[in-house]
Amino acid sequence: MRAAFLRALGGPEQIEVSELPVPRPRPGQVLLAVRASSLDPVDALVRSGAFPTQTPFPFVLGRDAVGTVIDAGAGAEDLLGRRMATSSLGHDGRQGAWAPAAVVPRERLYPVPAEVEDAVLAAALHPASTAHLALHRHGHLVAGETVLVGGGAGNVGSALVAEAARCGARVVATARRRDAARVRALGAAGTVTTVDHTDPGAADQLRELLGGRADLVVDTSGRLDPELLADLMAVRGRIVVIAAPPNPPRIPLARLYTRDVSLHGFVISRATVEELADAARGTVRLLQETPWRPRITDTVGLDAARSLHERLDAGGIEGRVVMRIRA
Predict the structure, then answer these.
(1) What does the pLDDT read at residue 170?
(2) Residue 58: is the preceding peptide bond cis (ω within 30°)?
(3) What end-to-end distance do the CA atoms of the chain give, in Å?
């Protein structure tokens, strides 16, 4: 089979697209005929070795996959012929999804409703799962709370806005003026407010909207100043950090701990099997019950694997890129 894989860690030049043997599923595993995958920022960290994980060479890239089960090991025969998705290949020793066929443990497979398109789900899994776990597993969101989303126009940020609004939260999101209407449309009328973070008066606007009343903050941008957050947080508020600026900011610990504010770091690569399954269900629910969709900016084939990683390293990827594996 023709696959995109590594023989060594390093730059995009390490990516090879050529033939590999078709893998065989072991007990408790299936062979998924992959129709669609996607490019995730973490793929570059795995490829370069910046995020240490097991990568048995030749190591196939690709985290997310949507396809059909075409072979099964003992204990997984009931899944034959079913349309399924997965979101945790290409990591921790598991071969990736950038190939026509991928072995997946059955506990990492999730059913796909007929109305959800392959490309949409492949592009949605990573940002929507991140949003789901940030809000629920780490942020402990409760209906009626006030949520601040930093970077509300991006794929993860917009998923955060849509899911928080779906759960009955009042949402304030930072977004450029050109994106504001799209972000506000992710919730029912009046539930989502936007502030342009490029406006010189943005900090004052946030203080006026949220001063002392933000129950939960999730920052996808790494731009929210911790000193500002200390002004915004409610007593027993939670801050979930999923991005950081290049220069470490000063954390006003005294102002946070005296208000019982908690700080949580989160990367989806450390999510458990159970958490990922819950997040996959949340992703499908988000697609079914809200207007949110991943912003797909390109659709490519396997031969584009190296050039995609070159663009990713150069900061030239905007939106979600779908990898079409099979027709």
Answers:
(1) 98
(2) yes
(3) 15
The pair of structure tokens assigned to 88 is: 């945790």
Residues 130 and 220 occupy one common structural domain: yes
Q: Beta 2-6 vs 15-19: how paired, if at all?
A: antiparallel
pLDDT in tens, 141-150: 999 999 999 9
- pLDDT over 70 at 327, yes or no: no
In a domain, 174, yes or no: yes
**Entry pTM:** 0.97
DSSP SS3 for 111: strand
Decide if pLDDT at 196 tops 70.
Answer: yes
User: Do 55 and 46 contact (CB within 8 A), yes or no?
Assistant: yes
- 184 - beta bridge partners? none
Distance CA 241, CA 223 (A): 11
pLDDT for residue 240 is more than 70: yes
User: 21 is written with which tokens?
Assistant: 């043997």
Euclidean distance between CA atoms 81 and 313, whole angstroms: 37
Q: How many angstroms from the chain centroid is the CA of residue 184?
A: 21
Render pLDDT for 180-195 as a digit per residue (tens, 0 to 9).
999 999 999 999 999 9
- Claim to verify: residue 160 and residue 206 sit in the same structural domain: yes
Q: Which residue range forms the structural domain that includes residue 75?
A: 2-112+295-324
Number of separate domains in the chain: 2
What is the 3-class SS of 75-95, one letter each residue? CCHHHCCCEEEECCCCECCEC
Q: Could you give phi then psi for residue 218, rounded to 5 degrees?
A: -125, 120
**Residue 251 and residue 111: Cα distance in Å, rounded?**
42
Q: Rounded to whole angstroms, what are the CA distances from 54 to 9, 41, 123?
A: 11, 18, 24
- Name which residue leads in pLDDT, 285 or 248: 285
